[in-house]
């Protein structure tokens, strides 16, 4: 009998909602309960493409808007063989941002439609679960100032949030909205319970293709 595949679990959400904190805690909890799990994040700034993106985000270089959008997508596609290999090995992948950030951030720029922004990511491995960490801007502000990277302004983040709301209307994706204003442990318990269900379901279902 073929071994059971791992689940592809994505955390999305506004800046400072707790994505990174929760991805790490989820991976630790899964590993401690004997379930193989690894964390990934997009953009993955370690690859050649990722370094171009990182320099753009740090405002050390400028890139044309369509071009950088396609680089973010290429950065996901270049990791697909590795992701599939790990999932087939039974490793659950917990991913900090994915194609939803890609579509939400670029479509918040003038002159971009959501449909065009989603196209390059059509066919990526489809997450078994996407959790959106919901936090209002006032509460996010209590967690610290915006950083100095590109996109880190409240006006732009507000537009991004609206694009996420549109993406969440798509019933082909298994979205769960998480109240990220709770304390770290309560958010974690919520995320863990959704994740355990997704891991069980993924064992019995083939990996899908996103937005196809
Ligand atoms: P993100 O990856 O979504 O930007 P982080 O996980 O980096 O968010 O968290 C941003 C900041 O908020 C960090 O200082 C983190 O310790 C803090 N934080 C995360 N989750 C919570 C929470 N539930 N309550 C209060 N502070 C939090
Ligand atoms: N971002 C992230 C995009 O614009 N497109 C994408 O496809 C992805 C994955 O890059 F501002 C943006 C979102 C955020 C920045 O920051 C990455 P972090 O701190 O590494 O998540």
From TrEMBL:
<comment type="pathway">
    <text>Pyrimidine metabolism; dTTP biosynthesis.</text>
</comment>
<dbReference type="GO" id="GO:0006227">
    <property type="term" value="P:dUDP biosynthetic process"/>
</dbReference>
<dbReference type="InterPro" id="IPR039430">
    <property type="entry name" value="Thymidylate_kin-like_dom"/>
</dbReference>
<dbReference type="GO" id="GO:0005634">
    <property type="term" value="C:nucleus"/>
</dbReference>
<dbReference type="InterPro" id="IPR018094">
    <property type="entry name" value="Thymidylate_kinase"/>
</dbReference>
<keyword id="KW-0545">Nucleotide biosynthesis</keyword>
<dbReference type="GO" id="GO:0006233">
    <property type="term" value="P:dTDP biosynthetic process"/>
</dbReference>
<feature type="domain" description="Thymidylate kinase-like">
    <location>
        <begin position="11"/>
        <end position="191"/>
    </location>
</feature>
<dbReference type="GO" id="GO:0005739">
    <property type="term" value="C:mitochondrion"/>
</dbReference>
<keyword id="KW-0418">Kinase</keyword>
<keyword id="KW-0067">ATP-binding</keyword>
<keyword id="KW-0808">Transferase</keyword>
<keyword id="KW-0547">Nucleotide-binding</keyword>
<dbReference type="Pfam" id="PF02223">
    <property type="entry name" value="Thymidylate_kin"/>
</dbReference>
<dbReference type="GO" id="GO:0005829">
    <property type="term" value="C:cytosol"/>
</dbReference>
<dbReference type="GO" id="GO:0004798">
    <property type="term" value="F:dTMP kinase activity"/>
</dbReference>
<dbReference type="InterPro" id="IPR027417">
    <property type="entry name" value="P-loop_NTPase"/>
</dbReference>
<dbReference type="GO" id="GO:0005524">
    <property type="term" value="F:ATP binding"/>
</dbReference>
<dbReference type="GO" id="GO:0004550">
    <property type="term" value="F:nucleoside diphosphate kinase activity"/>
</dbReference>
<dbReference type="GO" id="GO:0006235">
    <property type="term" value="P:dTTP biosynthetic process"/>
</dbReference>
<protein>
    <recommendedName>
        <fullName>Thymidylate kinase</fullName>
        <ecNumber>2.7.4.9</ecNumber>
    </recommendedName>
</protein>
<comment type="function">
    <text>Catalyzes the phosphorylation of thymidine monophosphate (dTMP) to thymidine diphosphate (dTDP), the immediate precursor for the DNA building block dTTP, with ATP as the preferred phosphoryl donor in the presence of Mg(2+).</text>
</comment>
<dbReference type="InterPro" id="IPR018095">
    <property type="entry name" value="Thymidylate_kin_CS"/>
</dbReference>
<comment type="similarity">
    <text>Belongs to the thymidylate kinase family.</text>
</comment>
């Amino acid at each position: 009998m073929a071994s059971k595949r791992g689940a592809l679990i994505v955390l999305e959400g506004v800046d400072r909602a707790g994505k990174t904190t929760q991805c790490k805690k989820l991976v630790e909890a899964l590993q401690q309960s004997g379930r193989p799990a690894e964390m990934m994040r997009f953009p993955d700034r370690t690859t050649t493409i990722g370094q171009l993106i990182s320099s753009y985000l740090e405002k050390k270089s400028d890139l044309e808007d369509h071009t950088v959008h396609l680089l973010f997508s290429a950065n996901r596609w270049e990791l697909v063989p590795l992701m599939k290999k790990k999932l087939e090995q039974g490793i659950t992948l917990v991913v900090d941002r994915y194609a939803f950030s890609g579509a939400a951030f670029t479509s918040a720029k003038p002159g971009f439609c959501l449909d065009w922004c989603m196209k390059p990511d059509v066919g990526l491995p489809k997450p078994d679960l996407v959790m959106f960490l919901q936090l209002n801007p006032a509460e996010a502000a209590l967690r610290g100032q915006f950083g100095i990277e590109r996109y880190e302004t409240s006006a732009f983040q507000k537009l991004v949030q609206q694009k996420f709301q549109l993406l969440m209307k798509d019933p082909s994706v298994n979205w769960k909205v998480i109240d990220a204003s709770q304390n770290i442990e309560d958010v974690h318990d919520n995320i863990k319970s959704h994740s355990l269900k997704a891991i069980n379901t993924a064992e019995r279902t083939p990996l899908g293709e996103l937005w196809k």
